[in-house]
Amino acid sequence: MALPRTEAALEAIERAVCEANGDLRKAAAVLQINLYELHQWLHADPEAASRIKAAQLVGWSALETEAYRRAVLGHDEPVYHKGYVVGHRKVYSDGLLQTMLKARVPGYAAEDAGHGVTVNVNLMPRATSYEEWLEQKGQSALQLEHKQDNEPIVDAEYEDVTPVTGLRDVL
Questions:
Q1: Fewest CB atoms within 10 Å of the CB: 8, 19, 64, 97?
Q2: Please, what is the angle between helix 94-104 and helix 46-68, to 10°?
Q3: What DSSP line would sit under the chain, residue for residue?
């Protein structure tokens, strides 16, 4: 069903968008129109576009209010014991609060940017066989010992080690 381009239709769209928390798809479903038709209104009529965008902002403010409630005021979550509700506990959302702070407080995200986790990864080249892996592992251990002791590396310590080439050699 096509929605006529009248003032009453535009007011109905604004009301539906506000009630749908700014979700155009949900508003179109409530109005029983195609989402494409609603987008045509947005592109064809600048006044309708600005009024619908304003309705979206009002709808989104309801989402912000709910996010604030969950982040700062918390919500009650049931506590179960043996399948029965035995009480409730107040649960807060630190993630929502941090997201709201980043969105609302100037400079908050910039201050937080330098506090990431630094991971140093030391990659060995990939071995194509077990023998090559043992050889690389032995070299890595020798290099580590040399760095720790600052003494010359003696290969004689590793001469009596026989590499295992398969499960049959172990059994």
A1: 8
A2: 140
A3: -PPP-SHHHHHHHHHHHHHTTT-HHHHHHHHT--HHHHHHHHHH-HHHHHHHHHHHHHHHHHHHHHHHIIIII-EEEEEEETTEEEEEEEE--HHHHHHHHHHHSTTHHHHHTT--------PPPPPSSHHHHHHHHHHHHHHHHHHHH-S---GGGGTTPPPP-SHHHH-
Q: Band of the pLDDT at 40, cuts 50, 70, 90?
A: confident
Tokens representing 49 are: 């576009």
Contact status, residue 151 vs residue 159, Cβ threshold 8 Å: no
What is the pLDDT, as a whole number, of residue 69? 87
What pLDDT, on a 0 to 100 scale, did the predictor assign at position 84? Answer: 94
